[in-house]
């Protein structure tokens, strides 16, 4: 019987994870079955219990269950602990293990683009779960400084205080988006503005060399602004592939090459 994997979320129909994991498996000569799994909003625990009881080997977790998955784990990685969210689950020695591969997926994506990360000054827009998940891996990749800028200042302050409580030495600044100015090497849009279609306004005084949009599959104000300023930009498809590769390696012990799976994403300028 083929080993069983799945991605669980609500909604789940849009997920590209089965397609990616099947493509990785074909490339690496591994046989597996990877399905989408819709859980009811209040049915996450029951759904993962049923999956693992039925010989499931590994689960990816997506919106809105990543925090619940974190809470359910017996063992989590350091990066998952800082993210307070888990997107990859598996059992080992009778214990439920969890990791968060989103941040490393972003680092792999930016590295594949050959954009500089080492000693970079990075600006992250937004202070929600998407931002929380990538801070630690970015510092691990050697960035010099991260500024979290949020529409609501208090939320950025809360995130900064929470992270500095555990890692007081990190160069982690905060700002209100409207007050931004100066120059950053890289700007990452981790707001949900692109997903909801809401406008994202950035001050004219803000300058940057590279622009990474975490959302994928549609054009956004952020990508349009990067085009207008003639700044190299990417949407988040490469991060999606990157996080999937990290999960694949956890489960199978081998990793496909990111570059082999970056099919043309239509909104990359
Ligand atoms: P996620 O888990 O995907 O990060 P979230 O926790 O709902 O989602 O956080 C969404 C983030 O996008 C927040 O930082 C939010 O800013 P506020 O804290 O001020 O609400 C930000 N956001 C959403 N729409 C935005 C917009 N139109 N302009 C600027 N920021 C926006």
UniProtKB/TrEMBL annotation:
Coiled-coil blocks: none
Stored SUPFAM superfamilies: Aminoacid dehydrogenase-like, N-terminal domain, NAD(P)-binding Rossmann-fold domains
Reaction it catalyzes: shikimate + NADP(+) = 3-dehydroshikimate + NADPH + H(+)
Domain of life of the source: Bacteria
CDD domains, per the entry: NAD_bind_Shikimate_DH
GO terms for cellular component: cytosol
Residue ranges of every copy of the SDH C-terminal domain listed in the record: 236-260
Domain Shikimate dehydrogenase substrate binding N-terminal intervals: 7-89
GO terms classed as biological process: amino acid biosynthetic process; aromatic amino acid family biosynthetic process; chorismate biosynthetic process; shikimate metabolic process
Enzyme class: oxidoreductase
Subunit record text: Homodimer.
Name this protein carries in UniProt: Shikimate dehydrogenase (NADP(+))
Species of origin: Acinetobacter larvae
Gene behind this protein: aroE
């Amino acid at each position: 019987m083929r080993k069983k994997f799945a991605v669980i979320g609500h909604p789940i129909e849009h997920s590209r994870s089965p397609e990616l994991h099947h493509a990785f498996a074909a490339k690496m000569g591994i046989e597996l079955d990877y399905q989408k799994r819709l859980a009811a909003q209040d049915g996450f625990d029951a759904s993962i219990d049923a999956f693992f009881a039925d010989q499931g080997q590994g689960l990816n977790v997506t919106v809105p269950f990543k925090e619940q998955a974190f809470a359910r784990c017996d063992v989590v990685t350091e990066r998952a602990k800082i993210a307070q969210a888990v997107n990859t689950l598996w059992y080992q020695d009778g214990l439920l293990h969890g990791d968060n591969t989103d941040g490393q997926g972003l680092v792999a994506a930016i590295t594949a683009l050959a954009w500089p990360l080492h000693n970079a000054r990075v600006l992250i827009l937004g202070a929600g779960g998407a931002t929380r998940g990538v801070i630690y891996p970015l510092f691990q990749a050697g960035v010099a400084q991260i500024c979290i800028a949020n529409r609501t200042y208090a939320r950025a302050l809360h995130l900064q205080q929470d992270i500095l409580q555990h890692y007081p030495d990190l160069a982690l600044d905060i700002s209100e988006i409207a007050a931004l100015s100066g120059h950053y090497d890289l700007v990452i849009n981790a707001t949900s503005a692109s997903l909801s279609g809401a406008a994202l306004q950035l001050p004219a005084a803000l300058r940057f060399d590279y622009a990474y949009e975490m959302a994928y599959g549609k054009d956004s104000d952020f990508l349009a602004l990067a085009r207008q300023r003639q700044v190299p930009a990417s949407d988040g498809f490469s991060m999606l592939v990157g996080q999937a590769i990290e999960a694949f390696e956890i489960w199978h012990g081998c990793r496909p090459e990111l570059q082999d799976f970056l099919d043309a994403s239509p909104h990359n300028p």
